[in-house]
Amino acid sequence: MIKEMRKTICLLFFLSLGFHAINAQNGEKNFIDRPYIEVTGKAEMEVVPDQIYLSIIINEKDNKGKVVLAQAEKDMITKLNNLGIDTKKDLSVKDMSSNFKNYWIKSSEIMTSKEYQLMVTNAQTAGKVMQGLEKIGISNVSIERVDHSQIEKLRRDVKVKAIKNAKEKASDLAEAIGQKAGMAIYIQEIEYNNFVQGRAMGINFRAKAEANVVEDAVPEIEFEKIKLESQVLVRFNL
């Protein structure tokens, strides 16, 4: 009795598998048998970065006293505040370290370094920061990266444009053979350089023509625009 029940259960199980397999094949066949048009849609967008991240490093030897490092930090914050920068919001400590390993091996001096990250919203402000910090003896300033505050929304926008491009392309091709592209039955997003990080193109010191000195020249920085690209594969009913 038990053996017969087991045989019946196994038979029902395999019949169920076969039924699902047939349905899957029929579904795929029905999908393939439908008249459709397949196109790729592309879109791209370029935006000016509005988040520029600067790396600021202050180095100080220990035998000069920690007060010197603290004073340099205080002078930096004062200078940045005078430039209209909210240091409480846009300035942060990124790293602080000392080279004790090298101290025990090579010398009797300990070099302490403190790294900060500053975010500004445009290239002009970045230039003013470099100029201002240079005047107070802080010259180890570099551009770390750039970004955009609305980058996620911009990504979505460029994807929508790619789908619209696919629809327009499908409509044009279908109309050429006397048909119309209907509803989308398949959409696949293709990774296609979705986000190309912008970078600094160059730093130039701009001096007034009538001036003979460049000490007060503001660095003129140009950034590549951030480039967003998207590509989608879409199938439309005919």
How would you summarize what this structure contains?
41% of the residues lie in helices and 34% in strands.
Note the main attributes of this structure.
3-stranded antiparallel β-sheet, Translation Initiation Factor IF3, 238 residues, 2 domains, 4-stranded antiparallel β-sheet, 6 helices, Alpha-Beta Plaits, alpha+beta
Molecular shape: rod-shaped
Question: Based on helices, strands and strand pairing, what is the structural class?
Answer: alpha+beta
Return residue spans where pLDDT drops below 50 for at least 5 consecutive residues: 11-15, 98-105, 202-213
Terminal CA distance reads: 57 Å
Give the proportion of residues in helices: 40-55%
What's the number of helices? 6
CATH class of the largest domain: Alpha Beta
CATH topology grouping of the largest domain: Translation Initiation Factor IF3
How many individual β-strands?
Answer: 9
Fold and architecture overview:
The structure is a single chain. The chain is of the alpha+beta class. It has two domains: 33-47 and 151-237, Translation Initiation Factor IF3 (2-Layer Sandwich), CATH 3.30.110.170; 51-147, Protein of unknown function (DUF541), domain 2 (Alpha-Beta Plaits). Helices cover 41% and strands 34% of the residues. The protein is built from six helices and nine strands. The chain has a four-stranded antiparallel beta sheet. Strands 1-9-6 form a three-stranded antiparallel beta sheet. The relative contact order is 0.21.
Describe the secondary-structure layout:
Layout: H1 2-33, E1 36-47, E2 51-61, H2 66-82, H3 87-90, E3 91-98, H4 100-105, E4 111-120, H5 123-135, E5 141-147, H6 151-176, E6 184-190, E7 200-206, E8 218-223, E9 226-237
Antiparallel strand pairs: 1-9, 2-4, 2-5, 3-4, 6-9, 7-8
